[in-house]
Each structure stands twice: as structure tokens, then as C-alpha cells.
Amino acid sequence: MTLLQPFSALLLWISLLMVTSSVNPDKPEEKIYSCPVIQCSAPAVHGLPGRDGRDGPKGEKGEPGEGLRGLHGFPGKMGPPGIKGDLGPQGEKGEKGECEGVVSNDLQRQVTALEMKVQTLENELNRYKRVLILKNTRSIGKKIFVSTEREETFANGKSLCGKAGGALASPVNEAENTALKDLITPSKQAYIGISDEQTEGRFEYLTGGTVTYTNWKAGEPNNLKNEDCAVIQDSGKWNDLSCSNSRALIICEL
């Protein structure tokens, strides 16, 4: 017990010495409780965030940038109509236009002139119709048979009818054959627009196509002396004969 007392006094003296030496005489505001060797208090924790600082003054406007200018956007919606403006000054007086009555009269004159021309054409057409009636013509269906009352070769007959806008008459049925027969002068014969020059024995229309109606006389066609053309006699019967060494009436169909 006697030995422990001096040792305890020594520990107390050393502790006081350490506390005294840790005190800084130049900084009196610091507490003497600081522990330079051993941490005396619990670790610190983060506090709550502080308040935002006040906005500073607005800076000066910078220089314009050098970037490319953007494209125009789409046009916006049309705004409401504005207030009607004041009436402008009266313009100069224009030239006097044509009266409606003058225009109507001019149109009426043109219509009258056209009507007169149509009437003249109708009179001419009727006159030619009467001339055709007086000449040897027959109308059957959509065809008109017109006799030239002239005897020509087969080649001249084709040319003559062609210039008139037609062809040598070619009956395709009994009615047309009869109408053609009635145009033939007694004891005469007329060329028919058929031939077998291309293929012997096969008669074809000069306008194209194989002959579908025939009225050959008994024993015809016989191709005597190379007879490639055909005629219709005053009896209505057909006969073949030479195209180059014969002459017959020319009857055209239009």
C-alpha cells in the first residue's frame, strides 16, 4: 500500500506535465481540453446543406456568334383579319366599252351568215341529187351504183371509179345484182370489180377478200384465152373475159 501511493503520485504528475505542455500561450482562445495524442470526442457528422447564395449581377452581352443561320420555320397560322382601311383615292376613268346590244347584234349577224351558207350547201346538194337521179344511178342499201354510160378497158374503168372516190361495182347479193343489171343498156355488159389474176380459179374483190356471191352463166367461168376479169350481162348473168383485150360499160359503186 505504501509503494502504490508514490507510483500513483508519479502518474498524476506526468499527466499534469503533459496537459501543461500542450497549452499554447500564443493562442489563449483554444481550450486546454484538446488532446494532441488521443482523440477525446466522437467523430463529426455532415450537417444539413446550407442555403443557396444570392444571384450575382447580370453580365454584359457577349459578341454575336459566327454560326450558320438556321432555316426559316413553317409559316404560322393566319391571324385574325385586320381593321378595314380607309377608302383609297378614285382611279382614272376607263375607256367606254361596247354596249351589250352591239355585241348581240354582231353575233346575230354571224349566225345569220352561217345559216345562209348552210342553206346554199343544201341547195347545191339537192341539185346534184337531182342530176344523179336523171342519170343512170341505183341506190341499194348503203351503196349507190352510178353508170358512166361509157365503155372502157378494165384498167381505165378502175382508174375512173377510183378518181370518183369509189370502185368498180361488185354485187354481194341478189338485190345488188338486180340493181346493177337495171343500169345495163340492152345487149351490153359491164365490168364487175372482181378478178382471179392473183390465183387462177379463185376470184377476189378488187377491194380485198374472196368473192362470196356469184351468178355465173352456165359453163362459166371457163378461162378461155386466159380470161381473168368478169362482166355482168343485161340478163344479170356473169361471164369471164380478158382484162386487156375487152371493153365494157363502167359502173362505179360509191
UniProtKB/TrEMBL annotation:
A GO-annotated cellular component: multivesicular body
Question: What InterPro entries does this protein map onto?
Answer: C-type_lectin-like, C-type_lectin-like/link_sf, C-type_lectin_CS, Ca-dependent_lectin, Collagen, CTDL_fold, Surfac_D-trimer
Pfam families reported in the protein's UniProt record: Collagen (PF01391), Lectin_C (PF00059), Surfac_D-trimer (PF09006)
> Where in this protein does the record put region Disordered?
46-98
Is Mitochondrion one of the keywords? no
Signal peptide annotation: 1-22
Every C-type lectin domain range: 140-250
Residue ranges the record marks as coiled coil: 104-138
The Basic and acidic residues compositionally biased stretches are 49-66
Give the keywords, sorted.
Calcium, Coiled coil, Collagen, Disulfide bond, Hydroxylation, Lectin, Signal
Record GO terms (molecular function)? carbohydrate binding
Q: Does the keyword Cell membrane apply?
A: no
Q: PANTHER family under this entry?
A: MANNOSE-BINDING PROTEIN, PULMONARY SURFACTANT-ASSOCIATED PROTEIN A
Q: How does it assemble?
A: Oligomeric complex of 4 set of homotrimers.
Family per UniProt?
Answer: Belongs to the SFTPD family.
| Protein name (record) | MBL protein
- Species: Oreotrochilus melanogaster
